[in-house]
């Protein structure tokens, strides 16, 4: 638009503004004449009309948001507001009747804390009026991160409905972006005020404590930690009802690592009631709330906090020893008289009442190390109740269960379970917990699961005391039972736990249990979210993965296709969809549809790359799948490329000792062997083997498998002696792992015997005889026939008549077995090959006719199958020639 | 830069020398950022600071005297220009970052919100630039109004026109801007 035209627009615009609607129309038509563009231009500007003011307000918001991002704060009232006199903005006091937040009118300030200021407010609309407490979050805490978290977690907190917890009703942010939370308003006194003013006796104080415990437990079951439990956060209403304030809020706002790193003093905690791990700034679990409850209990009983020096925040580092026993604390108190009298007792009686159970309960809850405290808030409540009921309390000196608990909590599970079960199980469980820890939200979940497992370990203590071995699998089994039972009334928590534990089982290789748990979660989510929901797809995916691992690919396929469909349609993270595609690729690979498999893998690969960049373990996973696919198609060059990429990437991202890395290494070695690069394959495998030995010990089954594979490569290389050595090392591993009379051991022993035969080793006969003996107790199989054949051939070369007779029997047995086993035309040659051995034996014994009678029909079968030029046929021809001589 | 420099540059800019703005810009920019940071660190409860108050403090710090009425307006106009540049540059940067996938830790919602904010900012900036091509005065008024938070009287002083004229000009300027930003955007 040029200046002149714009001036015409201007004139017409202001001219039209002076007129009413009808006048405008005729005025503009007349003035614009044929120039319809001009008419449209002016009319569209006039059309904006009242919208201009709304648009302006919206722009003002936009700019104040942008300024806030820049760290420039803005009252947000200078744009589009009323003209005001120059000078500072009038102070906005909460008492100001115009002060509103959304639908709430602020009435007065009722408190201030580390988080900000709390106002009493009122919501008025046509239907009802309600009093609420509004917490306006302090400036400086309103970083993007915090705001984002507020939005997400508000929904979680909103689910926290419990009669003893003040409800989070609403939340939002002011026009200038300051966040606020709207809470249920409770009229009451703080816990200590109430207890002392009412001169509550010990029993009534303990009942208040138990109510608090139930409330905290309800939150823990929803994976919410309070983190700032203290008497002033507990209100008691006039009719004696306990109400906990600010649940989950400290946690919600106190997870800004930058804030903690730069301004540790801003951490939201009250030193006198904060757990040692909290003071140390370590990761928190539900155990931190148990400590704080212990501190509140201590104060409620004795009138003082456990570490009085820290009441005003002093020297928290002095907490290296447990606090003074509650009873002693009262006995030593200068104001013991008044403390006791506000509980309706004399000092001596108060001390006596505290001594024993209450000392034990208090100290157990206040244990310095989280692992030494009660395993759950319920356990604390239970002991308090037992004390009230004059039943024996359960708290005692820390025993085995507690020690294991500690290790679970500290994520050094490996060490614990080494003592209990095998390394593989432990590593798998740790991996799952660790993975769960990756995501912020999932962290609490992992803690909950970890606590849960801990309780299970505790429950297993009686068996441990009897000297029985408690395995992780046992522990998980108890957990699975409890998920079905205890959490029945909390479906969502149950679904989450079932999912997490299902993954744990999956990593442990117990796919049946995994499947059961994932199916539980699937059913819950189907009811809760519906069939086409993203949540349903998550569980459907997990169920399918378990099915694939159980070789039930057909059942898995349908679920995966539905999950794929849902995940493609919804805004799930790219890697979630990729996971599903990856599983679909596995199915297609197993169904021998390599084209479809490859397409899925390539798309998954692309999505993983988009989600995580070029080098990531998931990218490596897809490359690995492609490598294995190409390998199974016999397309070795690309298989080598994919697997080499996958191996390198996994080494970088997971480390050289991760099971997935080792898998990639051994499969790459397989490809290298197929490509005839034997020495490279051997080198790679030797490295892998060294890592596996370091990681798993010399006697692990995976080490055995690697030894066998390396033995085969050495045999290919012609290094038969080395090959024998490797096999001799491998066999005892499998004797230990699967039993000495197992099929695996028998087969390996036969392999060893075959190698020894070629070396003409004196141990040959003994070894093969051992193999045949082992197979005797096993069902007939091609392997058992092979062992008989090998031993038969060896015995036949001996000169003793008895040996030769035994050889004949063995070979005839093998032929009979093979005749039964190989019934298809394709496999008939295997019977023929056994007959050739028998023919050889006849020749050894100088029975040419008998040899010819067997060799001739066998030759015909071999020619039929392999052609006359086959080396096997040539061998037969040579022996036939001897027989005919 | 010394105080006499600042006042003379201000005067030059007032007289229509756009190059003077470039001389002033870094100085004002730095001061505004420092002040903003200062107030971020302030722990006073419920403390809010308007853009105008911020600019006022920046001037006092830089020039060392309370602003005279006319000088104040000009300085505010300057600050409005600076503020626009700060916000637009950061919006542009963020847009580039997010589209380039530079940041993976931000949740999807966060990214989208940031993108939306940045896009709207850039649209606003574009519109103002287009407007300036055929109506410089209205573009300046909008800039001072939105980015500088200037009152009508202050805008009037900067442009040496009456407040009533500013108000009148603003009417069409706002209508034009809101229409340009479209129904799906701020006019919604």
Quick rundown:
The complex is a heterodimer of chains A (885) and B (188). Chain A is mostly helical and 885 residues long. Chain A is 65% helix and 6% strand.
Keywords:
A: 885 residues; mainly alpha; six-stranded antiparallel sheet; three-stranded antiparallel sheet; 9 strands; 65% helix; B: 188 residues; disordered C terminus
What features would you describe in this structure?
The complex is a heterodimer of chains A (about 900) and B (about 190). With about 900 residues, chain A is mainly alpha-helical. Chain A is built from 41 helices and nine strands. In chain A, the strands form two sheets. Chain A has a six-stranded antiparallel β-sheet with strand order 1-2-3-4-6-5, with helices on one face. In chain A, strands 7-8-9 form a three-stranded antiparallel β-sheet. In chain A, a hairpin with a 2-residue loop joins strand 1 (about 100) and strand 2 (about 105-115). In chain A, helix 17 packs across helix 18 (about 415-420) and helix 27 packs antiparallel against helix 28. The longest helix of chain A has 21 residues, at about 800-820. Chain A is flat, with a radius of gyration of 39 Å. By secondary structure, chain B is an all-alpha fold. Chain B starts with a helix and ends in a 7-residue tail after the last helix. The interface between A and B is large, with 59 and 57 residues.
């Amino acid at each position: 638009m040029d200046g002149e035209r714009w001036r015409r627009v201007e004139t017409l615009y202001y001219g039209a503004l002076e007129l009413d609607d009808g006048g405008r129309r005729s005025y503009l038509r007349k003035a614009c004449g044929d120039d319809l563009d001009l008419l449209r231009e002016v009319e569209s500007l006039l059309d904006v009309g009242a919208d201009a003011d709304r648009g302006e307000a919206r722009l003002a918001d936009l700019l104040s948001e942008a300024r806030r991002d820049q760290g420039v704060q803005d009252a947000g009232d200078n744009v589009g507001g009323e003209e005001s006199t120059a000078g500072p903005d009038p102070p906005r006091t909460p008492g100001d009747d115009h002060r509103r937040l959304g639908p709430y009118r602020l009435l007065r300030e009722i408190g201030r804390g580390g988080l900000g200021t709390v106002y009493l407010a009122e919501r008025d609309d046509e239907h009802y009026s309600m009093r609420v407490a509004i917490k306006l979050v302090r400036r400086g805490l309103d970083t993007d991160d915090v705001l984002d978290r507020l939005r997400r977690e508000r929904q979680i907190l909103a689910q926290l409905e419990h009669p003893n917890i003040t409800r989070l009703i609403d939340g939002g942010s002011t026009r200038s972006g300051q966040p606020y939370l709207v809470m249920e308003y409770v009229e009451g006194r703080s816990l200590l005020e109430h207890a002392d003013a009412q001169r509550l006796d010990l029993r009534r104080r303990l009942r208040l404590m138990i109510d608090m415990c139930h409330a905290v437990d309800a939150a823990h079951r929803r994976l919410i930690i309070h983190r700032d439990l203290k008497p002033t956060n507990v209100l008691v209403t006039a009719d004696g009802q306990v109400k906990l304030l600010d649940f989950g809020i400290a946690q919600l706002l106190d997870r800004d690592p930058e804030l903690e790193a730069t301004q540790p003093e801003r951490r939201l905690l009250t030193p006198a009631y904060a757990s040692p791990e909290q003071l140390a700034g370590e990761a928190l679990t539900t155990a931190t709330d148990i400590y704080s409850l212990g501190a509140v209990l201590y104060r409620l009983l004795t009138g003082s906090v456990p570490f009085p020096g820290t009441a005003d925040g002093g020297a928290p580092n002095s907490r290296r020893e447990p606090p003074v026993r509650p009873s002693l604390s009262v006995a030593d108190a200068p104001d013991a008289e008044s403390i006791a009298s506000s509980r309706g007792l004399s000092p001596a009686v108060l001390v006596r009442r505290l001594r024993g159970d209450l000392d034990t309960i208090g100290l157990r809850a206040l244990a310095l190390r989280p692992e030494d405290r009660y395993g759950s808030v319920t356990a604390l409540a239970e002991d308090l109740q037992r004390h009230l009921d004059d039943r024996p309390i359960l708290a005692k000196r820390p025993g085995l269960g507690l020690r294991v608990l500690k290790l679970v909590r500290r994520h050094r599970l490996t060490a614990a379970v080494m003592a209990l079960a095998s390394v593989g199980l432990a590593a798998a469980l740790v991996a799952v917990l660790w993975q769960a820890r990756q995501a912020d939200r999932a962290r609490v979940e992992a803690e909950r699961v970890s606590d849960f497992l801990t309780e299970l370990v505790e429950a297993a203590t009686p068996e441990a005391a009897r000297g029985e071995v408690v395995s992780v699998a046992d522990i998980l089994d108890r957990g699975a039972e409890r998920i079905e039972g205890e959490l029945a009334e909390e479906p969502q928590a149950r679904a989450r736990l079932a999912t997490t534990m299902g993954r744990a089982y999956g990593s442990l290789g117990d796919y049946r249990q995994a499947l059961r748990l994932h199916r539980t979660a699937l059913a819950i989510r189907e009811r809760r979210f519906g069939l086409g929901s993203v949540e349903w797809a998550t569980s459907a995916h997990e169920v399918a993965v378990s099915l694939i691992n159980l070789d039930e690919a057909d059942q898995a396929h349908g679920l995966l296709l539905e999950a794929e469909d849902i995940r493609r349609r919804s805004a799930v993270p790219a890697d979630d969809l990729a996971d599903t595609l990856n599983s679909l690729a596995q199915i297609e690979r197993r169904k021998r549809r390599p084209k479809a498999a490859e397409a899925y893998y390539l798309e998954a690969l692309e999505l993983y790359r988009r989600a995580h960049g070029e080098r990531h373990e998931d990218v490596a996973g897809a490359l690995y799948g492609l490598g294995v696919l190409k390998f199974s198609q016999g397309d070795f060059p690309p298989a080598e490329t994919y697997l080499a990429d996958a191996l390198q990437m996994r080494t970088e991202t997971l480390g050289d000792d991760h099971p997935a890395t080792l898998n990639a290494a051994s499969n790459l070695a397989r490809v290298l062997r197929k490509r005839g690069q034997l020495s490279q394959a051997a080198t790679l495998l030797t490295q892998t083997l060294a890592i596996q030995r370091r990681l798993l010990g010399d006697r692990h089954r995976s080490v055995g498998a690697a030894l066998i594979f390396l033995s085969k490569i050495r045999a290919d290389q012609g290094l038969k002696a080395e090959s024998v050595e490797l096999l001799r090392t491998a066999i005892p591993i499998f004797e230990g792992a699967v039993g000495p009379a197992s099929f695996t051991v028998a087969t390996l022993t036969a392999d060893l015997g075959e190698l020894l035969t070629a070396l003409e080793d004196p141990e040959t006969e003994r070894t093969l005889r051992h193999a045949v003996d082992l197979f005797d107790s096993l069902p007939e199989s091609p392997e058992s026939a092979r062992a008989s054949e090998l031993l038969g051939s060896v015995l036949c070369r001996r000169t003793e008549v008895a040996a030769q007779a035994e050889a004949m029997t063995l070979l005839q047995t093998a032929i009979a077995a093979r005749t039964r086993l190989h019934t298809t035309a394709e496999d008939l040659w295997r019977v023929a090959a056994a007959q050739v051995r028998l023919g050889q034996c006849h020749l050894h014994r100088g029975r040419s006719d008998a040899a010819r009678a067997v060799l001739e029909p066998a030759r015909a079968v071999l020619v039929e199958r392999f052609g006359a030029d086959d080396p096997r046929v040539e061998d037969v021809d040579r022996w036939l020639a001897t027989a005919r001589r | 830069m010394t105080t006499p420099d600042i006042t003379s540059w201000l005067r030059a800019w007032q007289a229509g020398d756009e190059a003077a703005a470039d001389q002033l810009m870094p100085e004002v920019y730095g001061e505004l950022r420092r002040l903003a940071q200062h107030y971020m660190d302030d722990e006073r409860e419920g403390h809010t600071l308007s853009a105008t108050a911020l600019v006022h403090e920046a001037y006092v710090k830089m020039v060392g005297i309370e602003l005279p009425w006319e000088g104040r307006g000009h300085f505010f106009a300057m600050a409005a220009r600076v503020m626009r540049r700060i916000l637009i540059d950061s919006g542009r940067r963020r847009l580039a970052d997010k589209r380039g996938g530079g940041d993976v830790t931000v949740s999807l919602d966060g990214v989208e919100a940031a993108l939306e904010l940045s896009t709207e900012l850039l649209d606003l900036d574009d519109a103002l630039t287009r407007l300036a091509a055929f109506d410089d005065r209205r573009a300046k008024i909008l800039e001072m109004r939105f980015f500088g938070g200037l009152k009508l009287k202050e805008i009037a002083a900067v442009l040496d026109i009456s407040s009533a004229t500013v108000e009148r000009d603003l009417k069409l300027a706002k209508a034009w801007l809101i229409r340009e930003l479209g129904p799906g955007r701020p006019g919604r």
